[in-house]
Amino acid sequence: MDNKKIADRVRNMGDSATLKMAQRARDLTAQGIHIISLSLGEPDFDTPNHIKKAASTALENGYTKYTPVAGLLELRQSICKKLNRDQKLDYNPNQIVVSTGAKQCLANLSMSLLQEGDEAIILSPYWVSYKEIVELSGASCSFVHAEISNDYKSTPDQIEKAISPKTRMIFFSSPCNPTGSVYSKTELQAIATMLQKHPDILVVSDEIYEYINFTKEGHYSIAQAEGMKDRTIIVNGFSKGFAMTGWRLGYIAAPQWIADACTKIQGQFTSGAASFSQKAASVALDSGLEESLKMTEAFHKRKDLFVQLLSQIEGFQVNNPQGAFYLFPEISSFLGTKYDKYTIQTDDDFADFLLAEAHVAVVPGNAFGNKNCIRLSYSINEKDIEEAVKRIHMAVKKLVK
Ligand SMILES: Cc1ncc(COP(=O)(O)O)c(C=O)c1O
Fold it and tell me: What is the pLDDT of residues 100-122, one digit of tens each?
């Protein structure tokens, strides 16, 4: 048998650009080359100790068995309390589904709500997996492109122009991966007002970077806007705000009928998420945000440093993110340049050049819907940020038109 037997749905799927770049960086590291990776999608901090302890205690207490498919009631109650505390939104535990990462939440949603003939609007730049997950359901994607001039945020007009009779859902993240942009309350309310004219469209609001937010206003969910709670699915999780990527836990808060559908599909695919992870996550939510805020403070400082240093390099147009831990600079002025054996025609070429010449790993922007950009993660310490920018500067100085 050969790989021709692989189903079209997998054959047609793109590989994860972020994982591909991480692998190439690892290969060079194995050759003894010191690579600074700006391609990481996870906090460099460890999970706070009290959360780890809660998992050990759970294991000691016998939390080693299957849990209810939608998650332990205790955790779903903690999530309801959190939504009430942080968003002033009232949900009951039956409207919460806990899954194996926010990634599974998104897959559950697509499989439950989309099918062939449907369209999903994706606000671009977008997180890599939205497109692949939507297409796996048989639906197609329609992209609304926002540029750096508008801080990579789509306006209600732009979104409305993309709406067709086939549109079922809109996907976006705020704070955004890859841009770090944060939609303000006013901006989200304006989108909600526009959506009043389109009552059948659902919104998937990916809020996984909620706690990594540098704005004074803080996080606002579109589910809080008038008329939106019954048509919004909040996607959130523990990977980013609590540095718990390996624990594989995410959740949705949704209208009951959607939560039921997601529970049904999860019951056939994976059942409940890991039992001891769930016990620890409940402690993470109930014990306040002190540790998350400390991490956010560190990310904020690094962001300021990175923006300041990178802005000094000619050719980079640098955005000023208000959350998450990514920069998404515009690099189109390097396209069409050359050095030695390198010809930079595309963002992929530019990323390859930086890896080979500067020993810095970045992710090409086309993976996120914008081929004039690259994504730089600052989930590294300040010394490495300084060194990475120095290396990038030395390398791009060699490029000529
Ligand atoms: C915007 C966004 N949504 C969802 C996820 C998935 O997170 P999880 O680790 O909970 O599956 C990520 C992870 O990088 C992300 O950046």
Answer: 999 999 999 999 999 999 999 99
Degrees to nearest 5, angle at CA 163 with 160 and 167: 145
Atom number, ligand 1, closest to the C-alpha of residue 209: 1
Query: CB neighbours (10 Å) of residue 67?
Result: 21
Q: Mind listing the pLDDT tens digit for each residue in 72-88?
A: 999 999 999 999 999 99
Q: Which residue has the tokens 């939510």?
A: 285
Contact yes or no for 266/97 (Cβ under 8 A): yes
Q: Where are the domains of the chain?
A: 3-46+291-396, 64-288
Q: How far is the CA of 336 from the centre of ligand 1 (A)?
A: 34
Does any ligand 1 atom lie closer than 6 A to the CB of residue 210? no
Question: Measured in angstroms, how far is the CA atom of residue 376 from the centroid of ligand 1?
Answer: 16
| Ligand 1 atom closest to Cα of residue 173 | 1
Closest listed residue to residue 38, CA positions, set 358, 371, 271, 397: 358
Which residue lies with its CA nearest to atom 14 of ligand 1? 41
CA of 102 to the centre of ligand 1 (A): 6
Is-contact 325 214, C-beta < 8 A? no
What is the third-level CATH fold of 64-288?
Answer: Aspartate Aminotransferase; domain 2 (3.40.640)
User: What's this model's pTM, rounded to 2 decimal places?
Assistant: 0.97
Give Cα 194 to chain centroid, integer Å.
25
* Residue ID of nearest Cα to ligand 1 atom 16: 177
CATH fold of 3-46+291-396: Aspartate Aminotransferase, domain 1 (3.90.1150)
- The CB of 241 under 6 Å from ligand 1? The reply is no
